[in-house]
Specification:
This is Multicomponent Na+:H+ antiporter subunit D. It is found in: Cell membrane; Membrane. It is a multi-pass membrane protein. The chain is built from 21 helices and two strands. The chain is an all-alpha fold. It has one domain (2-440, 447-495). Strands 1-2 form a two-stranded antiparallel ribbon. Helix 3 runs antiparallel to helix 10 and helix 13 (321-352) crosses helix 20 (471-487). The longest helix has 32 residues, at 157-188. It is globular, with a radius of gyration of 22 Å. 59% of the residues are buried.
């Protein structure tokens, strides 16, 4: 099974090369892209089953064993992230193909979209599977380089201006990350994660804490944790709908994944837990208050994206198996639901010609299916029973109560308030955009929504409902993954079976 580990990275890269060579043949580009992402999803499912049953699957790239060579590691956490990301990127790709047949030439995906999108996918999967800090950095840089192209796709003035902010912030976080990598190597003589798990414990407490905070700073910018999140609501909404959706669903979660991986494997002991709890609470509350103040659907969803990152950081900060399990479950839930909502925003713009809540209304009457496609994930995001959002929040809040103490108690209260305000925001959007009398934008002659766009959105809504139906088995996987993360030895022994110090 180890031969399968590199495929989620290699297959999209090969697909990117083929689609670039076939730039003048869009049908072949689409077929290759769909085949590559479908194959990546199938491989990811096999890796998840293998990791759950038999432990981490490791491959030494080029035949050079760890810690000298680069290793890719598919433990339960990494394999689960690759499965969810592959499913989401496949659905968004189908959505973009449907949109390409309906949009004007200015914003439609051009020939460069498919190779760039596949490179982005390879970067995401490489980051999840990376077994050393530098390869994790490479994964980030691959996905960021592709995202620079995608966020400015179409070359409009607005996209170039907001994309410039995104590029500057991304380069800054990469510089901090690269500096951290250099400092870690200078202090330990290695970048292999399994070997770092052994050597970092021997460093003086001050040096160890400094390295931890440097990495947290870099990853928090990428994850859009408050107060390092101001760039996101201004950057994401201007991109094409499928690009915004995949960015919202995946890119910030790669940052969250890096925080989970490093805080559990490299820096156990909870030295930064208090700081993480404080920023988690501020991220939840300030993010959702920003959403309350918005009148544009895409900006509103961008603020809810920031807000709910706080739930995941809260779970990490608890430093318990229950907290980590809840955080991982919520990452899986949020990738699916937040991506779905941005795809729905694209459908609203397609049908009404705008996402400005002051200009649209009556969508439930003129496009009832669109109303259903919004209502289900919106209630899921708000945490209405019995959806997966409710189950994920309950798991996190119960973990916080179990830890006890003033600060976890404040975080439990903040999480509850954030959930109620999310419900308020979702209800407000429903009442204005879908329930009230039609406005000018939606009273014009009906625009037929492309079937493939609708079908891809339906598939993601169904995936969100599947997470609810399979919440029990999924919690089993996340709890098992969290236990391994806390234990650390399954990962270390899989990568370094000989116990290299």
């Amino acid at each position: 099974m180890s031969a399968l580990v590199p495929l989620p990275v290699v297959v999209p890269l090969l697909g990117a090369a083929l689609t670039l060579l076939l730039a003048g043949k869009p049908r072949l580009q689409r077929a290759i892209s769909v085949f590559c992402l479908g194959g990546t999803l199938a491989v990811a499912l096999l890796l998840l089953v293998q990791a759950y049953r038999h432990g981490p699957v490791v491959v030494a790239v080029g035949g050079w064993p760890a810690p000298v060579g680069i290793v890719l590691v598919a433990d339960q956490l990494a394999a689960l992230m690759v499965v969810v990301s592959s499913a989401v990127t496949l659905c968004v790709l189908l959505y973009s193909i449907g949109q390409g047949g309906s949009e004007t030439s200015e914003s439609a995906p051009v020939s460069i979209f498919h190779p760039t999108y596949l490179v982005l996918t390879a970067g995401v999967t490489n980051a999840f599977l990376a077994g050393d800090l530098f390869n994790l950095f490479v994964g980030f840089e691959i996905l960021l380089a592709a995202s620079f192209v995608l966020i400015t796709l179409g070359g409009t003035e607005t996209r170039i201006r907001t994309g410039s902010t995104y590029v500057v912030v991304s380069i800054l976080s990469s510089l901090i990350f690269l500096t951290s990598v250099g400092l870690v190597y200078a202090a330990t003589g290695t970048l292999n994660l399994a070997q770092l798990a052994q050597r970092l414990d021997d460093l003086p407490d001050g040096v160890r804490l400094s390295l931890e905070l440097m990495l947290l700073l870099a990853f928090s910018i990428k994850a859009a944790v408050f107060p390092l999140s101001a760039w996101l609501p201004d950057s994401y909404p201007t991109a094409p709908a499928p690009v915004t959706a995949v960015f919202a669903g995946l890119l910030t979660k790669v940052g969250v994944y890096a925080i989970i991986r490093t805080e559990t494997l490299l820096f156990p002991g909870g030295h930064a837990d208090t700081l993480l709890m404080v920023v988690a609470g501020l991220t939840m509350v300030i993010g959702i208050l920003g959403a309350v103040a918005q009148s544009d659907l895409k900006r509103l969803f961008s603020f809810t994206l920031v807000s709910h990152i706080g739930y995941m950081i809260f779970g990490v900060a608890l430093s318990t198996v229950a907290g980590l399990s809840g955080a991982i479950f919520y990452v899986v839930h949020h990738i699916t639901i937040q991506t779905t909502l941005f795809l729905v925003a694209g459908l609203v713009e397609e049908r009404a010609g705008s996402t400005d809540l002051r200009r649209i209304g009556g969508l439930a009457r003129v496009a009832p299916l669109l109303g259903v496609l919004f209502f289900v994930p919106a209630m899921n995001l708000a945490g209405v029973p019995p959806f997966s959002g409710f189950l994920g929040k309950i798991g996190l809040l119960q973990a916080g109560v179990a830890v006890g103490g003033p600060l976890p108690g404040v975080l439990v209260a903040a999480g509850t308030v954030t959930s109620l305000l999310t419900l308020y925001v979702a209800s407000r959007v429903w009442n204005i955009a879908f329930w009230r009398a039609p406005r000018l934008a939606t009273s014009e002659p009906a625009v037929r929504l492309p079937r493939l766009m609708v079908g891809a959105t339906v598939a993601l809504v169904a995936l969100g409902l599947t997470l609810t139906l399979l919440a029990g088995p999924l919690f089993d996987v996340t709890t098992d993954a969290a236990a391994d993360l806390r234990l650390r030895t399954p990962y270390v022994h899989a990568v370094l079976p000989g116990g290299v110090p």
